[in-house]
Amino acid sequence: MTEVYRPVGGRLLTRQFYFMGFLALIAGYFIIRRFIFGIGDVSHLSDGYPWGMWITYDVVTGTAIACGGYAMALLVYVFNRGQFHPIIRVALLTSVFGYTLAGISIVIDVGRYWQLYNVFLPQYANLNSVMLEVALCVTLYTLVLWIEFSPAILEAMKANRLLRQLRHVLFFFIGLGILLPTMHQSSLGSLLIIAGYKVHPLWLTNIIPLLFLITAIAMGYGMVVFESLYASVNLKRELETDMLSRIGAVIPWLLILYLVLRIGDLAMTGNLVALTRPGPEPFLFAAEMALFLFAIVTLLNRKLRERPTVLFWSALAVVLAGALYRFDAFMIAYNPGAGWHYFPGVGEMLITLGIVAIEVMAYLFFVKKTPILAMHRPHPA
Amino acid sequence: MNIDRRDFFKVVFAGAATALTAPTAQARPPKELSPDAVGILYDATLCIGCKVCEVECKAANAMPMSHDTPLEQAHGVSGLWDSGNDLNSQNLNKIKIYANGTAEVKDRELDGYSFVKRNCMHCVDPNCVSACPVSALTKDPVTGAVTYNPEACIGCRYCQLACPFNIPKFEYDKAFPKIVKCEMCSERLAEGDIPACCDACPTGASLFGRVSDLLNEGHRRLTFQPSERQEYPVRRLDGGETRTAEVATYYPKIYGETETGGTQSLLMAAVPFEKLGLPALGDESRAQLSETIQHTLYHGMMAPTVLLGGLVYAAYRHTHEDREETSGDQDRPQDGEGRGHD
Ligand code: SF4
Ligand code: SF4
Fold first, then answer.
1. Phi, psi (deg, nearest 5) at residue B148
2. What CATH class has B38-67+120-280?
3. Which residues of A148-166 are buried (b: 16+ CB within 10 A; e: fewer)?
């Protein structure tokens, strides 16, 4: 079960790379403005909508999309599916950048960033706060991710002694790296419990932590499949359809569990009647359901999921469904009361876009320059 | 390709342990009102809308004047508006108006109008205090005033999301912003004074007192007959100062007596409270529910610790091969190439 990883090589500074760099520069301009003139200068956040695009996309959705490393570790280490091991490293790569950039967005989003370290000071800790749990777990997990990912960097640096020492303790970080996302991906949903009536009844439920956790894992698998297929086409590598379709086969069961829990809960609490209320919410709910069902139907069918195009679109559907679920709950169907409206500002969106661009650039850099992707045929030793 | 049964059961066991330890955690009981808790009883039927409370609030809290650009342009003046048209990061206290139809008669729902005072409700079981990760918002154990410590605050704005009354405001226009909210003039309270709004109010519409006494006073008023003349205390309930006024028809409820677990700012009016912009809330605070769910999941950190043990063990077994192999030092990775588990 030993894989050989190799840098893909090739030119880094492609047209695409420059374009991403350009987006990052634009974001940089707005980030500077945010720090000089305040959050209101670049965003449409308000006292009614204190959380908008940055929290909803960069943190809540972004870290769920970055659950590939976590989801694959569950499969390989907990369910002992060693054959998926070659994918772990590239899954970790997206996780490492997803979480690191979520951390950077938090620094941009919080008002008093220079005091952020207060969350680590015991005299300020509020153990009743869901936010404290999320903040500590996300920070710790980002560190753990870097440690889990570091062998790739150490190999590229040929730091063999350090590498050997690291390998003896890595199992501990792998364990921690499964526990922490289980905790904070569910707590990201729990954040909304206290907001009460401001969250639409189709999304507000006491089992929201479980629903967020299940969708985060499903999105993790979806993203691994989506990203591998996308990278294969873009980096002109052979398609790993066989392995990816087997990962894809896990997703429908998670989604079925999710749908049973979610709809069962809505039926039991009587909140299902909210579907008959006027407004866009029932349609948003229907759109989520349609995406989830599309993924379930296509991925359940072996013939279908072995076709790369179908697999690609189904994986994308899972990621989009989970993202829409989060956007609806945190932003679109969130209503703090009469008189408040929110649509992200231009600067706000461009900052988010720039952060995504930096993620893509970092991905390309590491895949091309460090040993991340497994070779298809084992290297003769 | 089969799942390793033993490992699978290990995970199931850890999961079951998580689930089973959970029900032993009790629902967090609701927070009790401190016997010495103080608050403000606002009676909209007494309010004449003079807004002197807004002016004195600004003075007591050193709040800047508000600008209202459209108003200033319309009137050709600048900086004369001492308060904005709603609560915001420069207004901790705001008198608002409800108007319906012709708005002829005060304290009537149809074709009438009513004032309402908005400020922090100083909840008995405050969501904002439960939400704040760094204890920047705290509730005084004696007076019950909910106060803010900028030294602790990280500006995450979770308190804004959590507060059912949208009370905490944030300085979105500043590079070094703070949360701003009514703190019941805690510094004045500490000196034996009463909140500036109550001190300023000429009609007794804003009345300071012990919450339990204020509730008694509120229930006394609910027994009054419409259009009889009654004595109303002014400024503070125990201050002896009173005035007589004609009684309006009260809407039969004191807002804040039970809402969200009770609040220390209480309101009375002739118009239903929803019309005045006060949300219909249940009798339990969401903080209670949120903390119950969170502490159930993390019951004494026991479940996560059990789970971590299982996970680390699983990872240990599955990386076994890897440790053996690399410690042998035979297979050095070649140039820029790696092998093995990570
Ligand atoms: S009204 Fe809002 S800000 Fe005031 S104590 Fe209650 S939850 Fe906190
Ligand atoms: S903005 Fe400040 S006061 Fe409000 S919850 Fe965050 S840290 Fe606490």
1. -125, 135
2. alpha beta
3. bbbbbbbbbeeeeeebbeb
Residue B334 CA to residue B337 CA, distance in Å, equals 5
Instruction: Quote the pTM value.
Output: 0.90
C-alpha–C-alpha distance, residues A367 and A89, integer Å: 10
Which residues in chain B are classed under CATH 3.30.70.20?
A: 38-67+120-280
**What is the average pLDDT across A16-24?**
94
Read off the amino acid at residue B332: R
How far off is chain B from A312, nearest CA to CA, in Å? 24
The verdict on ipTM greater than 0.95 is: no
CA-wise closest residue to A110 among A43, A61, A160, A159: A43
Q: Which chain A residues are within 8 Å of B164, Cβ to Cβ?
A: 196-198
* Beta strand A4-6 pairing with B169-170: unpaired
Buried/exposed code over B75-103 (b: 16+ C-beta within 10 A; e: otherwise)? eeeeeebbbbeebbbbbbbbbeebeeeee
Nearest chain A Cα to B295, which residue? A128
Selected residues 225-264 of chain A with any CB under 8 Å from a CB in chain B:
none
pLDDT tens-digit readout, B102-114: 999 999 999 999 9
* Residue whose C-alpha is closest to residue A53's, from A326, A359, A357, A335: A326
B7 near A CB under 8 A: yes
Q: Residue B51, SS3?
A: coil
Q: Which two tokens stand for residue A45?
A: 């956040």
Chain A nearest-CA distance from B271, in A, is 18
CA pair distance A348, A105, nearest whole angstrom? 11
Beta-bridge partners for B115: B97
Residue of B nearest to A45 (CA): B172
Which residue in the set A130, A151, A176 is minimally distant from B338, CB to CB? A151
What's residue B332's pLDDT? 40
The answer, for A80 touching chain B at a CB cutoff of 8 Å, is yes
Which residue ranges form the domains of chain A, and what is each CATH number?
45-342 (1.20.1630)
Handedness of CA A337, A339, A345, A348 (dihedral sign): negative
Q: Please report the DSSP string for B230-247 in residue order.
A: EEEE-SBTTS--EEEEE-
Please state, as a whole number, how many other Cβ atoms lie within 10 Å of the Cβ of residue A65.
Answer: 24
Contacts of A196 in chain B (CB under 8 A): 127, 164, 281, 286
